[in-house]
# Entry
Amino acid sequence: MIKVNVNRPGFEYDIHSLVKAFFSREDVSVRVQNGFEDRTGTDLYVVFTDELVTVDFSEEGASKERRSRKINFADRKETKNHLKRLIYEILTACTGTTLPWGTLTGIRPVKIAMQLLEAGKSNVEIAAYMRDTYFASREKAALSVMIANRERHILRNVDYQDGYSLYVGIPFCPSTCLYCSFTSYPLSRWEKQVDAYLSALFHELDYVAESFGHRKLNTVYIGGGTPTTLNPEQLDRLLGRIGTVFDTEHLQEFTVEAGRPDSITEEKLQVLLEHGIDRISINPQTMKEETLRVIGRHHTVEQTKDAFALARSMGFSHINMDLIIGLPGEDYEDVEHTMQEITALAPDSVTIHSLAIKRAARLNLFKEKYEEMGLENNMQIMDMTARYCAQMELFPYYLYRQKNMAGNFENVGYAKTDKAGIYNILMMEEKQDIVACGAGTVSKRVYADGRIERCENVKEVSLYMEKIDEMTDRKRKLYR
# Structure
């Protein structure tokens, strides 16, 4: 247990996230109190005075490292940055560890580079700012700048002001994966409720189509869960409803996350093609059979290959594949084997996810059991995945991070020149309104001044169906 004691409120979340990045396998608690008499165990003390902040890292009451810095408390952003740099310097000195992203603990590091790019800063200036302000490594600073430039080019024809994007959530899955904390429900228990869920979803979609009829729909993303748990008739109804009630004249991208290979059939793929959709994801996560069993996936490696080959033979011109690095028991050789198998398939885009141990996931609930198997990620593995993507002529186009990620790394989307996912970038860079329909989804309104407001749909499927009018009312208030 790492105990952080601070005598002034307001920075607890930032402190916790940074300390947790250094001590990923330890519980970290942050408490605000005035006196620090009881100094036992491993403790970090943060003391604010009128013009000074002092950080003291102690073990069993003995100070290992103490440093102070003058701070202008009138500027909260600068106060936070100074404080995090001070903590970072002390923890680096005490642990001998550096973090690839330095003090950056938010999920959108590229957003910083994008804002500086739009403000007229050069690539060199932006990289230097990332290194000096956040202690980001040269590699991560350069990666941020590279992706920001590509994102800006990809979004050049997207209408931020009058355009919007639509997310549609299908919260059903064949099974719940070990690492998953998303809103998903096993289809075996909910199969008889799917049609009722779709009826409620259609009600919400109809409201959005009418309310946003004066605006341009730029992208649609159907995710989950696993959208292809719907049978062909249900999938046809959903896509038909969207195509009927929404004006798709300005649509630049329509994605269906097919997801699990064992949920993909020729009939379902044919439905997608008949509705003009050829951008899908087939997500193996790993190409190691043993790991698939461990994480609760019921498909085989061969089913992944068969599903991909089927989709390609039917004419799908953009197939994405998602992989997770840091799964239980997997090492460098296992990940390289997966990359070799993926290279043989030649997808149009690949997303490399660093495993994030979510609080609500089974992987976290039984963490000790799976840590014994090994949860390994490092710079060598991440560099290797990047090399294989480059060999496939797939290059980084978007990036995001999550709390408690293996190795404190990132998730990176790689794509061929004309195959980047526009919705993914819009979601991460928060450039445009995202209107989300379905249980457990979150809508996002982006104001011209950069301010962002959100509204959530309830997560539980039965409650979503029961309160569907309330879900539309929440959107009415958000976008009024």
